[in-house]
Every structure is written in structure tokens, then in C-alpha cells.
Amino acid sequence: MIPSIDLLGGKIVQLQQGKKVKIQIGKEPLEFAKRFSSFEEVQVIDLDAAMGTGSNQEIVKGLCSIVNARVGGGIRDLETARQLFDAGAKKAIIGTSANKAFLGKLCKEFGKQNIVVALDSKKGKVVVQGWKKTLKESPIEMAKRLENLCGEFLYTCVEKEGLMQGIDWETIKRLKSVCRNRISVAGGISNTAEIKELEEKGIKSVVGMALYTGRIKVGETK
Q1: How far apart are CA 106 and CA 82, in angstroms?
Q2: Among the options 6, 46, 48, 168, which is catalytic?
Q3: Domain of residue 115, residue span
Q4: CATH classification of the domain holding 17
């Protein structure tokens, strides 16, 4: 399991479907994140940077020194990526700027295995810019086009994100069948049985809401 840390306005939050704030953690992010320090990977997303409304970069850099962070949100140029890797980020998650030219540069400088392409999907189409802009491509089509320019795909079903009502198995299975890359999944995971089933298929689970509400315990997943 990969715990998720989403940052908005300097605080750790959990959103539903990328819009409504359902949980806000009062404790400072760097202090709160220590509970995840033993995990192999922790996902850190700067929501303000993703939406183009601000930045939590200094907090993100601090988190990179506490957890094994895979970092996303607003990484749209090489300099931003360099700063995050220099701060200790293990991987960079690219969404809005996931084009062949930029991904090629990232792979050359940081290694293909350290680049994750975000496949955020709403109504069967990829969404970018903080899930505000819809592209014509489906997640499957984008995965086929970009599989040689990243080491992993992160699939998020926006409709299910934060609802803890189960995951989009149909798309996940199709994605697994069409590409050779590692795959991680976010959006809708509600229990350890789902995590186990994904693991059996060689897929990683990114867990947020279920972890923060206590439906899934940190000790269980370890």
C-alpha cells in the first residue's frame, strides 16, 4: 500500500472527487507524515500546484526528507523536477505535462523507472489541470502512447475518488492487459481485501480516504 498525502493551502486534506474537502488534518504536515516513514513509498500531491492556484513546494521538499516520496502536482518543467529530486523525491508524477517531449527529457535526466504518468480519468476520458480540463484520449489510449516514456502509470478514477465505494476494476484490468509498465491505482479503495486483490495482480494501491477515516489501519497494511 502507498499512503497518500494531499496538500492544499499548507494542510493535509482529503477531497471527494477532487472538489469537496472532507478531511483536513490540523497537525503540521511534516509531523503528521512521520507515521508513514516506514512505508516503501508515500504519495505526496501538491493540489494547489496541480490546479495552478498556489504552491506547497517547501512543505513537499520537507516531506521528501521524512518519507520515501513519489511527488506530483504542478511538475511542468525540468527545474521543478530537479528541485524535488534534489530534495529527496524518489519519483516524479506527471499529469498535465505528460507529453512525449517533456517525458523524454525527464527520462534522460532522472531515469525512466523514476517517472510516473498520471492517468486521471473522468467519464472515460483523461482529465488534466487539476481535473478541470478533459482530453479526447481515454486512459487506455494514453497508456499505449506513452508506455515507453515512463516506468509506471498511476490510474485514478475521479468519480470514485474519496467515496470508498470500490474501484474501477474494468479499466484497471484493461490497463493491465495493454501495457507492460508498473501500475498503481487510486480512487475508491475501501478495504484491505481490495488491496490484497490488486497486489495479487501486481498492482499497487494508493490509499487516502480509507486510511484517514480509519476504515483501513496503518498496521493492517504493513
Answers
A1: 9
A2: 6
A3: 2-221
A4: 3.20.20.70
Q: What is the pTM assigned to this prediction?
A: 0.95
**AA identity, residue 128:** V
Nearest to 149 by CA among 107, 91, 94: 107
**Based on the structure, what is the number of domains in the chain?**
1
Closest CA to 158 of 213, 121, 126: 121
**pLDDT single digits (tens) 170-211:** 999 999 999 999 999 998 899 999 999 999 999 999 999 999
In this prediction, residue 17 carries a pLDDT of 81
Does residue 46 carry a catalytic annotation?
no
d(CA 144, CA 157): 18
| Reduced 3-state DSSP string for the chain | CEEEEEEECCEEEEEECCCEEEEECCCCHHHHHHHHCCCCCEEEEEHHHHHCCCCCHHHHHHHHCCCCEEEECCCCCHHHHHHHHHCCCCEEEECCCCCHHHHHHHHHHHCHHHEEEEEEEECCEEEECCCCEECCCCHHHHHHHHHHHCCEEEEEEHHHCCCCCCCCHHHHHHHHHHCCCEEEEECCCCCHHHHHHHHHCCEEEEECHHHHCCCCCHHHHC
6 an active-site residue? yes
Which of these is catalytic: 46, 48, 120, 168? Answer: 120
CB 14 within 8 A of CB 214: no
Give the residue carrying C-alpha cell 520537507. 62
